[in-house]
């Protein structure tokens, strides 16, 4: 989940920045736990990239809080959105890696099919 989609999905439950930070982190953890069963379909490398993306996203949220004096949840939300626009999200990087690996695997499989079908 990209920070932008996370912010759209998860609205602040109070005006306190700290509450919103914890809610965002909890949502990321829940989403990860929900998709944990997908691990069996991925290579160890792909799963590690996904795990790193999750942890990097959480750490980014924590760092935005530490490095900024924003007081309200709405301002914190704006800050995260502004910062996330400046660079690719960890999730986007993980997805790009996953798609490359999938394509490589598919091409190998396709070549095997061609060999066995001739």
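Sequence proposed for the structure above (118 residues):
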């Amino acid at each position: 989940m990209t920070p932008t989609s996370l912010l759209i999905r998860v609205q602040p439950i109070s005006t306190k920045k700290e509450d919103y930070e914890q809610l965002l982190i909890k949502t990321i953890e829940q989403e990860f736990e929900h998709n944990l069963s997908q691990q069996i379909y991925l290579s160890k490398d792909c799963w590690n990239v996904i795990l790193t993306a999750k942890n990097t996203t959480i750490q980014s949220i924590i760092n935005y809080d530490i490095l900024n004096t924003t007081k309200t949840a709405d301002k914190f939300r704006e800050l995260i959105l502004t910062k996330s626009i400046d660079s690719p999200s960890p999730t986007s990087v993980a997805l790009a890696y996953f798609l490359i690996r999938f394509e490589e695997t598919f091409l190998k499989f396709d070549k095997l099919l061609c060999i066995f079908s001739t």
